[in-house]
């Protein structure tokens, strides 16, 4: 298997190999030219604000989930030193000798640690300009033993982002008119699944003809993302692609397919994509938060009763089966969610 990083470092690359070229794409087409204001959530107001401040931020979360499926989180309390250690550690992992990384060249979706490229090379008609490291970090923890100290950073970082996710889920529950603990309890988030994904997008000589990742939505309830200083994330809002330039030390959070299923379509998952550049390597680190693998996720009865037609919009599906489904079909918009739509 060829990796993008090795391809870029071969020193012979002047144009993109044909298997990476997306025919007919225009990276600038549909880009929003207006300055869009991304919803911003002050996490400290959610966890330690006055009742009025908390009420206001819960309203803001509801608006962000309803209108965008995406928001930026500031004052989240995760130390900047830990975030920097994760970026450095991720970079150092990809800088390991090829044979050491290939130890984690996982073939199975639920292998604890998987190193790979593109999305699913056995299915992708065109390859994506991206190498990845995927680690199942909860309820059982795993991490590569190299580079030195990375495992410790991963464990602490994933614990802290789980805490952030659980607090956000409380706010989301309240914004839906439910008990604060509703989603955390119904989805058994204490034993829930957490997947860490480190994405490496090396510089590309022709960034306008490739994709880092194509338009897609995520599985799970929430994805919490951070990146190095290079942009590339774009979210689809009202039919336009909005380039995202986060504030320093902020997190980007998007709702996933299972939030759309659970809320019976009230809060929809967001379609987003990753673009690349010709100047430097972009690194992003995402944690996907979902229920235990064997949980069946279906619309919450309380939200079905409050919906316009009072009927479920999705059939229930085991979380594990949904993740397998996503890996078995081409990554394209909400193609996976459409399989469980009633």
Automatic annotation (TrEMBL):
At the top level of its lineage, which domain of life is listed?
Answer: Eukaryota
State whether keyword Membrane applies: no
Matches recorded under InterPro entries: DIOX_N (IPR026992), IPNS-like_FE2OG_OXY (IPR044861), IPNS-like_sf (IPR027443), Oxoglu/Fe-dep_dioxygenase_dom (IPR005123), Plant_2OG-oxidoreductases (IPR050295)
Q: Which Pfam families match?
A: 2OG-FeII_Oxy (PF03171), DIOX_N (PF14226)
Q: Name one GO molecular function term.
A: metal ion binding
| Residue ranges constituting the Fe2OG dioxygenase domain according to the UniProt record | 191-291
Record-linked Gene3D superfamilies: B-lactam Antibiotic, Isopenicillin N Synthase, Chain
**Keywords, comma-separated and alphabetical:** Iron, Metal-binding, Oxidoreductase, Vitamin C
Q: Which family does it belong to?
A: Belongs to the iron/ascorbate-dependent oxidoreductase family.
Q: What name is this protein filed under?
A: 2OG-FeII_Oxy domain-containing protein/DIOX_N domain-containing protein
